[in-house]
Amino acid sequence: MTAYIGKRLLAAIPVILGLSIIVFLVMKLIPGDPAQALLGSYATPDNVERINRALGLDRSWPEQYVIWIGNLLQGDFGRSYILNRPVIDEVLDRFSATLILAGASLLICSVLGILAGIVSAVRQFGWTDRIVTFFVLIGISMPAFFLGLVLILLFAVQWRLLPASGMYAVYGGGDLPDLLRHLILPAGTLAIVATGVVARLTRAAMLEVLRQDFIRTARAKGLSENAVIYRHAFRAALVSIIPVIGIQTGFVLGGAVYIETVFQWPGLGQMLVKAVSTRDLLLVQGGVLVAATLYVLVNLLADVAQAMLDPRLKA
Amino acid sequence: MTSKWYGLAPLLAATALALVSPAAAQTPPNVLVVGQIAEPASLDPHVSTAANDFRIAVNLYDGLVRNKSGTLEIEPALATDWTISDDGLEYTFNLREGVSFHDGTPFNADAVKFNFDRMLDETHPYADTGPFPLSFFFSAVETVEVIDDLTVKFTLNEAFAPFMSNLASATGLIVSPAAVEQYGADYGRNPVGTGPYKFEEWQSNTSVVASRNDDYWDGAPELEAVIFRPITDANTRVAEMLSGGIDVLLETPPDNVAQFRDDPNYQVVEAVGPHVWYVMLNAKEGPFTDVRVRQAVNYAVNKESLVNDVLQGTAEVSAGPIPPAFNWAYNEEVDPYPYDPEMARQLLAEAGAEGASLTFLVTEGGSGMLDPVPMGTAIQADLAAVGLDVEIQTYEWNTFLSEVNPGLEGKADMAEMAWMTSDPDTLPFLTLRTAAWPEEGGFNSSYYSNPEVDALLDQARISTDPDERAELYKQVQALTNEDAPWLFVANWKQNAVVTSAVEDFELQPDFGLVLRDVSKP
Question: Which of A43, A95, B41, B65 is the most buried (most CB within 10 A)?
């Protein structure tokens, strides 16, 4: 198992390196540059040249990339052009916020999605199944940013039950209940689509398992229905559910980009949107690098968990 | 198995209740929470370039001079008075006595010299705390000399009339040299000034907190603290205002202004701003080389309808390149082109340009661009009504700038643009002179050229007599209105919404958010 994990981690290095080259090229190929974003209306050629010299952007592309990689290997992510702040400070600040939001969403979508999936599989074509499927389809089809605004209108503006945006209250807050209050709406919104996907796949996986011989055997042994479903069927279905949750991590991280913008959640997604529009290359690189690493790790974790659950995969 | 869950249910319900109930708390008295449009980039006023950051900076710092509240006229701040030599090359300032920075170090002539040398001299020991994008505001400064502890002299290499207004801009604010030495490149997150509020804390992406400076030389403010919150999404910003999370809402979307205006719990505050929104017309090639076609589009577009319907009354119709916010230099006698499609058709017929096809570059959004896509399509419709066939090409803001700034030749006949400036000189000097064509390094991307206008602008730039300057700008205004290098559209009115508890809140024509006189009992 250790050798397997080591091999997988090594395989991730070229993926992340390739990703950084793609990000670098895309950022260089889209028109506009940080000097223009900084200077706005005042971006005369003279001023742009002065700023580019100060930021080291007057060097050739390969040179810039090699310098960045070289610094990165020494643990230096560089300085944001626009924020004038070390990239690593900004990315770590943001990363913890995204981790909280994405973690909470994953938790919600896994628990709700799996429960909904099991219930509708067990009561296939019954009323419960139809109702669950109905809501699941609405969840999958609803644009999350729109749903986010609707929830803000209801919970923050109309009923004044929850804060409209932010991660902590700007005065008197900062503790765990404060964080949870701010977390409910964005995490809930972000979880809705993923919940639908997890529910659909759990339902399919459960239906397949429930048709198999060992389930009939278990029932024939006289086990209670709960034991059959949760101890035998669900455990077998989990093998195909876990990778789905791993993939949902990517979805949740991607969804965080607009959910964080709507809810003013101070995370990586919101940072990336702004960094791209101001062509803040090093900040984009830092953010993408961290998000990609997280995605690779979570999927590795999912694969390991799957291997542990399914003896056939251990080879 | 299931029975275990029943025990949990009340616990969960109680937790949920505890979480949701106290959220509706209002902001406390004497603390003002401002909903900003973005996280500040830096609170070093020499490093930053964003109006959003300057709204915080003007409350932490003072400059040598400042704009008198509600106007763009200069009044003393950290300098009590000054003399300008007859040739306009030497400015000598007497500094205010007994002023200290928030870190306790004294404000004096050495501090002033440090500030400008850091920005302008690449060999200065703290030049690496930059870059300083807007330092060219002071590029005419040759030397800064300390005459004595409270006297400082600036020597310019050429007469430069906008010097005083540039000193009053955010780039002219004075930072604490000791703090720059202490924090180096991280000074922008640890700002120290002399202003009415002291910087307390910057929580990344959550808030910037500043508290009252009890020793402020111009009288301590009434508010105990000001909190700036970044809320990027305009709809979310409005929702925060409606749910009681902020006291001041900046840059309200036009659609929401009316809603707040009708609600007694809120006040809508407006002020003119030195802002111009226009469409440049390519005078080098195509139909717009003929002045009659340029005038025709000015007649053809219904600007009243643009400012009232598209912008919901958040702007006024513009008459030329100098906005009325510069009241001392504004020519009241020049009227905007009236909406007269008949006249437009007649001029187009005379010029033989009926049914011409035009390409129009439109941006999706950007600094000062208001509602560029709806405005672009409304203009397109008005021009179609007089028989012009306009094709719109839309670009994201940074891409748009890199299309437009190098010049419209070979690309387009028209392009949207907007400017916010601190001096009447800036916009015409950078966008209307022959010497400002793109290949010369300026922003005259539509190649307007009138030697008379060139001469007037050059003269206004070196004249240190405000009355003479004003007269020259009035002539520029009259000439350009006739030449119609642009389709003149709108001057934006800044707006803010504040709750009814906030008193004496005013917006400034220089876009500063000056909070020293505001109270919220």
Answer: B41
